[in-house]
Amino acid sequence: MFRLCKSVASKTSLDQDSSRPLTLEDLVEHFVASKRSLNTQTVLWRATDIVNTARKLLEENAVLAAKNTAIHNIVDQQVEALEAVRRGIDMVEAEVGTEFKQLLHDVDTSFSGLNSTLAVLRDTPIEAVLQPLGTPQKHLYDFIDSATVSNLEGTLRACIDRYNEAHGTLDDSTDAFDTALDNLRSSIENVPMTPATTSNPSPIPSLYHDLEAHAREAAQAFQSLVQHYDLCITALRHTEGGSAAATQATGDAPVHSGDDIAATPEPMSEDERQDMLNVLRKDAHEVEDVVTEIQERGSEMTFLLSQIEIHINHLRNEASALFSILQMISRITGEVKRHIATSRFFHASWLEDTRPSLVNGIEESENQREFYERFDLAYAELLVEISSRRRRHEKAKRKAEEAQKELDRLRVEDERAREHFTLAQGDFLPLDIWPGLRDPPRHYEVRPVPVAVEIEDDNLDGVDEWGDVGRAESGGVQSIPQLGRNVVERALTRVKRRM
């Protein structure tokens, strides 16, 4: 913009009124306008305050920007650490959960096999011929201790209940942890981010630079007004009656000048005076524009300061929100210890209680199933053994009967031979020649050998020589029952299938 201060000796073209000489009234009017223009000094005072305020805000901007950046980094690190802890808890839970599901499947499979075996025992009746008369029908299941299975099921059920309780406690802990992390993430997302990035840094340095430029330009413009004012005073000094006219017009002594109008002016030639008046005449037309410029620059500085303050307020709000985030992280970090302790307890209870109990339960269930399967197999083999014993018994019985018949035949033959000898020689032999001369043949008899076995009388239905009529043989040995052919065949099939 064109400035009023010019060299008095400069030659410029004048406006259309340049041909008319300036009167004393014109000079007084220019003087009054010049003095009034100096009121823009308040704008300079305000500009000084704005610059000082902006300088402090510039310093605060640097501090807040650095602080907020550092806190952002700290928050990111802390959130990453918290999320790492949460993932660690998830890994423990997932690892335990996977193994628990597998062991639970193994438990179900094992008990399914055990229950299938028990169902076989329930459906396998004891052959009636093996039981005392009048005994109610029994099955293999009646001969086992079912309380062992029930106790094992109860133990595993209690173990699973303890696991579910520990897992429920862990779920409550992780839910609280997740809620805290969600709130933290939400709070971070809602932090009022200051509109400044690496590619778009803080606008305050640029705004402050513009403020200084406006202040400098306003000061220079005001200096032009001061110089114009001084030029008006000089012109009045070199005009007759100028001092009195200026005092009368303003009502007081002029200001902003080191000399008053009444002071004795320095000598000046008429040409120099005319040149001075020409400059004054031209500059007087620009006073209003310069005043407007100063006021506009003051308004622009006020606007720029408001932009700086808006950005600083963004930074302050961001700093306040980040401080709240740090407090939230501090609270969550304090709670993390409890979450970790809960996870450790869950893992320890798994390693020390649940897992060993399930593994032992599976092993014991398998052992019981194997034992009861062997029991079922042993009963099938018992039926086969009874059938084999019966066959051997029948064979021995036939051999005994054959031997008895041969003995009886020999005895009859011996009796006949003795009778024939007696008839032929008896009259000739005295009886005292051999005491056994007239004895009958020795009698031999084939029969079961008695065995000393304790047996209740009511278990015996009768006794015969060979154990065929009653349920016990003579001498306390129970008779070998006669099993049906189909019973033995089914037993043989079961034995072969399990070999």
Given helix and strand content, the structural type is mainly alpha
What is the succession of H and E elements?
A: HHHHHHHH
β-strand percent reads under 5%
Low-confidence stretches: 1-16, 253-259, 454-466
Under CATH, the topology of the largest domain can be stated as Ferritin
In the CATH classification, which architecture of the largest domain applies? Answer: Up-down Bundle
The N- to C-terminal Cα distance equals 116 Å
* Radius of gyration over all CA atoms, rounded: 65 Å
User: What oligomeric state is this?
Assistant: single chain
Based on Cα principal axes, name the global outline: rod-shaped
CATH class of the largest domain: Mainly Alpha
How many structurally independent domains? Answer: 2
Q: How large is the count of helical segments?
A: 8
Number of strands: 0
The biggest sheet, with number of strands, parallel, antiparallel or mixed sense and barrel status, is: none
- Overall pLDDT level: 84
Indicate the percent of residues in helices.
Answer: over 70%
